[in-house]
Amino acid sequence: AQKERGEGGGPSLPPGVRPASAKVLELLKKKKKSAEKAPPPSEPSKKAETSPPKPTKEAPVAEPVAPEEVEVEIEEAELSTSFDTLDELGEEEILEDLFRNIMRQEEVQANLEKEEDVSQLMAQLPRIPLFSSLDPTEFVQVVEKLKLCRFDVGDRIIREGEEGDSFYIITRGKAKVTKKDPQGNEVELAVIGEGDFCGEFAFFSQSTRQASVTVTEEMEALQLTREELKEILEKFPRVQEALREFYKERMIGTMLAISPLFQPFPPEVKNEILQDFQYQEVDAGTILIRQGEEGKGLYVIASGEVAVSVRGKKGLTEVARLREGEFFGEISLLTDQPTTANCMAVKPTSLFFLPKEKFQPLILAYPTVLEVVSAYANERLKVTKPLLVGGEELARAGLV
User: Fold this and answer.
1) How far apart are CA 192 and CA 160, in angstroms?
2) In Å, how far are 174, 231, 232, 241, 251 from 238, measured between CA atoms?
3) What pLDDT, on the 0 to 100 scale, is given for residue 126?
4) Cβ burial, residue 136 (10 Å; 0-12/13-18/19+)
């Protein structure tokens, strides 16, 4: 017999099934049986041939366990709902209580006889689309790592710019996701609720938190550490693929919401403009633009960071760090002159690239785009002009 507490006995658990989930299933099975028929009376004692007294409210008689039944050993104080009171609760309270119990991961002994039992557990837990590709045994292996957290309205569980080591899956309540745009204004990106998750940006971008998450409705969430999430994704590639797709969709949505290039337009126009851009992922150290070469196109940063430097009178000087939503490469496109700076990714970076040949049709179709990139180009040249050899020629050409 498998030992969890070092005492008691019971059938061993099937491979891949942990005691916490087994306990919940046993509670469910007992609830079902108690609803079908009342428990048989206890066997009379040899010393007294009379029938046992009926249970009173003050001292309820424990439900006997038939020989073939699975034994479950738990400390009664650890449960907020005992077997005797399951029938007195509504379905919603029962499911909520069972879910809380599995999250506490009390040590118990039980036996899951059928795979359908695990499917029953999956049906009782809150909807988690991220794990929908897992089979029952795999799902239980994930559940055993989850920790239940509770948050009040106003709690900021994720703060933009801070280091982060937690990934959250919301099981109840709501929160809003916000991020500062390049001008420093806080923009609301989304409202998330049951089944949604947050915290994946810091994991995939290998950087600090990329947005803030603030609780707007009393919330419960399942927490995973960075290492636990990494372990799950390595073990279950299907979950990693699904999470990457979610991450990419959110990354694009964030870029469209905060980028000055897209902000002036309604959602349908933003999507139309984005159709001409090409998605790229580059490693840290990748040089995207070399000063003095012919411009290739316009870049918009979806995630990551790009350093801008100028080689001029005083050697190589870094003049800016560009992040999510910001764009670069526009000066050479507007002037049809060689590029005026170097642009290099300083961490893994995701970008949307608009080829040079598509830039002119874009600004003709959407003149607002031309206004935005022209304003940024003029401001940037004010910074780089004093550093550049030949800066006076740029001024005479009307570029600054």
Assistant:
1) 17
2) 27, 13, 10, 5, 20
3) 53
4) buried
Q: In this structure, what token pair is assigned to residue 135?
A: 């089979």
What pTM value is reported for the model? 0.62
pLDDT 10s digits, 148-181: 899 999 999 999 988 888 889 898 899 999 999 8
- What are the tokens at 225? 């550490």
